Amino acid sequence: MQQKRRLKNRLSVVRLVLTCAIGTIALLALFSAHAFPSSSASSGHGVVESYLLNKLDGARGLLEYEKLWKPPSNKDYVQCMEPNVSFSSPLESRGYLLVHTNGGLNQMRAGICDMVAVARIINATLVIPELDKRSFWQDSSNFSDVFDEEHFITSLANDIKVVKKLPKELATATKAVKHFRSWSGVEYYQDEISHLWDDYQVIRAAKSDSRLANNNLPPDIQKLRCRAFYEALRFAPRIEALGKLLVQRMRSYGAFVALHLRYEKDMLAFSGCTYGLSPDETEELTMIRENTAHWKVKEIDAMEQRAKGYCPLTPKEVGIFLSSLGFPSSTPIYIAAGEIYGGDAHMADLQTRFPLLMSKETLASADELEPFTHYASQMAALDYIVSVESDVFVPSYSGNMARAVAGHRRFLGHRKTITPDRKSLIHLFDKLDRGKLKEGRKLTSLIIDIHQRRQGSPRKRKGPISGTKGMDRFRSEEAFYENPLPDCLCRTELHDRNQTLLNR
Q1: CA 207, 209, 212 angle in degrees (round to 5)?
Q2: What is the pTM of this model?
C-alpha cells in the first residue's frame, strides 16, 4: 500500500516536471518566433511555434473582424412610434386628396409618407397614390405592383382613411390642382390648403417630394411619418419574397457588404460628373442632360463638382476605399444598382480587388427575375431589401436610396452604415493620381481616421447649415427619413414610460 502511494507521488512529480518543461519550451518558442525566426518547419520546436502563431493570428483576426463588421452601439435607443394618448382616430373627412408622386422609388416612397401626414393634417381621405410613369426610367408600375396595397390601407386605419379609387360621383368633379410648397409646416396646410375645402371636394397634389419640413413638426405627425414609412409602406409580397431569397443567398457567402454603386447613366448625366470617362461618354451624358426638360441645370463644371464632393465615387475609387478600410479581397459584395455606366470597362478595377461581386442578376435565375426586369422601381425595391439587411452598407453617393436605407438601418437598431466623406476622399485620390501618395499604411490610416465617426452610430438629425437662408436653409437640413432620431427613436427608459401611459 505504502509502495503504491510512493509510486503515485513520483508520477505526480514527473507530470509536474513535464508540464513545466512543455511550458518552458512554449515560452522559448514564442520568444524565438519574434527574436530568432526558425527556418525549420519539421522540428518539434517548429510545431509549437506554428501552433502558437496560429493562435495569435486567430486572435488578431477576431479583432479585425470585430472592427470591420461589428455595428456601432445603439446607446439604448429603441423604436418609439406610438402616438400620444391624446392622439384620436381620424376626424370626419372633408374631401379627397389625390397624389401624383414624382421621381425614382425612394423619392416616391418619401413623398407618399409625407402625403399620409398631410392627409391627417387637413382631414382628407387619401386616394391610393399614382406612381410616376414619366420619369427617366419610364416605369409603368402601379401602386399595387410595388407596394402591398391592402396592408397600406389597414395599417393606417387608425391614422387616416385610405381608399383605392375616387368615388364615381366625383370622377368628373372640378379638382383643385396644387403644387404644395416645399418643406412646409403644419400651419401652411391648416391655413392655406385646408381653405380649399370651401370650394372643392377633391385636392390634387401635383408633386409629392419634399412637401413637409424635416424638423419642428408636432411629435404625432413625425411619428405618423415613421409608421407610414417603416410599417405601412411595405413592398408587394412577391418583391418581399425574392428580396429575402437574395439575402439568404448572399448570407451563404458569409457576412457581406451592400454597395449602393450610383454610377449609372441618369446620375452621371444629372450631376455632370464625367471624371475618368471618354470624350464620347462625356458627350453622351451632356446630351441626355440637355434633352431632359425637367433637369434645370444644363451647364456644369465637372471638375468643380468632383472637388466639392458632389459626384458619386467611381467603381475604382470605391475599391480603393474598401481596401483601405481593411476589407479583404474575399469580402462578398452585393452591388445594389441598375446598369453601371460603361459596364465591365469601368468595373474592372473593383472586380480585380473584390472578385466576389454579386447582384440580383447573378444571384437570381433569369426566370426568377423576369417578372421584375422591365420595371425600374421593382428592381430598385429588391436592392433596397438586400441593402437594409446587409451586414455593412456603403453608399457611393448620398442620393434618395442611400438616405432611405441609412435611415431604415438606424431605425432597425443602428446597423453599420459607412458613409464615405467624398470631398476628403477625392483630395486623397487626386494625390494618388499625381504620385504624391501611394496605397499602403499611410492612406489606410488617413481613410480610417476620417471615417471613424461615419459608421451609423446614434445622433440627432442635423438642422440647417449655419448661414443659409430661405429655401436653401430647409434644403440644407438632413432629410427626415435619413435619420428618424429623435422623433421615432428614444432611449429605453423613456419608451417604457410611454408604453405604461398608453396601457393605462
Answers
A1: 110
A2: 0.86
